[in-house]
Design brief:
heterodimer; A: alpha+beta; Thiol Ester Dehydrase, Chain A; 5 strands; about 35% strand; elongated; B: about 160 residues; alpha+beta; 5-stranded antiparallel beta sheet; about 20% helix
């Protein structure tokens, strides 16, 4: 596979957006049944009596869907070398059945690797919005990418 | 389910150790096809030629498995009312098919809510370890819990 994006193709201020990702009640319950079986994620009736007033998606499902959007947006076409982690992940608003999510990701910083001349890091801020334009989740993540031309 | 742990029970230094869960190749591929379809998560053959030298789990699946271990071990018996987020999350070592994971949850700090007398926040260090005792993922995150006994509001000074 030939890659479209290398480390050099990311620059601070670059913005990418993708949308149209919906979560159904069934998908929310299925994910929660496997990974986060708190009643406000798995049981519509109990969720109604909960603090959230109805079924909401596990925050890990929202984060995982954010990852899917990053994949579809550019990662699958990028010379990606994985990620060391994320900082300041915030679940700002609950995601409910039928919500349609959209991702806006902005490059904050790019840095050549000090130890590996064939690699560079990209720090991004990724924001997930619902169909009302409300911010539901954001995080600051780092991706490592192969360089098109290795540094000195 | 009866609530066993309230905010007051999460005192700094307290440690919870969970049971284990083993991730199969099928588990890894199924999660990745849906949420993280990078080839080193979905295709064992392609993964062999990747920088990871073989199939590895999506880091988001590792985090989600940690959540499940926490739920089964103690979270479902707490007064938890959600989480505002994480300060940091680090993927330290790849998780591979057949790895057996467990979670260690350590209370770092406990803070009463400034605005709501019936709840408080707890800051945890969550570490997911593999069968060799290596930390594969480490997070610093917060959860909100209801209090057993609401705080006394300061008497009105006026």
């Amino acid at each position: 596979m030939s890659y479209k994006y290398f480390w050099e193709d990311f620059y601070p201020g670059q913005v990418r957006e993708i949308g149209g990702y919906s979560l159904s009640e069934e998908e929310i319950i299925e994910f929660a049944g496997k990974y986060d079986p708190q009643p406000f994620h798995t049981d519509g009736e109990k969720a109604k009596q909960s603090f959230f007033g109805g079924l909401i998606a596990s925050g890990w499902q929202t984060a995982s869907l954010c990852m899917r959007m990053l994949c579809d947006l550019y990662l699958l076409e990028a010379a990606s070398l994985g990620s060391p982690g994320v900082d300041e992940l915030r679940w700002v608003k609950p995601v409910r059945p039928g919500d349609t999510l959209r991702l806006k990701t902005t490059v904050l910083e790019t840095r050549a690797s000090a130890s590996r001349p064939d690699m560079g890091m990209v720090r991004h801020r990724s924001e997930v919005y619902n169909q009302h334009g409300e911010l539901v989740m954001h995080m600051s993540g780092v991706g490592m990418f192969r360089r098109r031309s290795p540094g000195e | 389910m009866a609530v066993k742990y309230y905010w007051e029970d999460f005192t700094p230094g307290r440690v919870f150790e969970t049971a284990t869960r083993t991730l199969s190749e099928e588990d890894i591929v199924r999660f990745a096809r849906e949420y993280d379809p990078q080839t080193y998560h979905t295709d064992a053959e392609a993964a062999r030629h990747s920088p990871f030298g073989g199939l590895i789990a999506s880091g988001w699946q590792t985090a989600a498995v940690g959540m499940r271990l926490m739920c089964d071990n103690y979270l479902l018996e707490t007064s938890c009312v959600g989480s505002p987020g994480l300060e940091e999350l680090r993927w330290l070592k790849p998780v591979r098919p057949g790895d057996t994971l467990r979670l260690r949850s350590t209370v770092i700090e406990s803070t009463p809510s400034g605005k709501q007398p019936n709840r408080g926040t707890v800051l945890f260090r969550w570490e997911i370890l593999n069968q060799n005792g290596e930390v594969t993922l480490s997070m610093l995150g917060r959860q909100l819990f209801l209090r057993r006994a609401p705080a006394q509001l300061a008497p009105d000074a006026s």
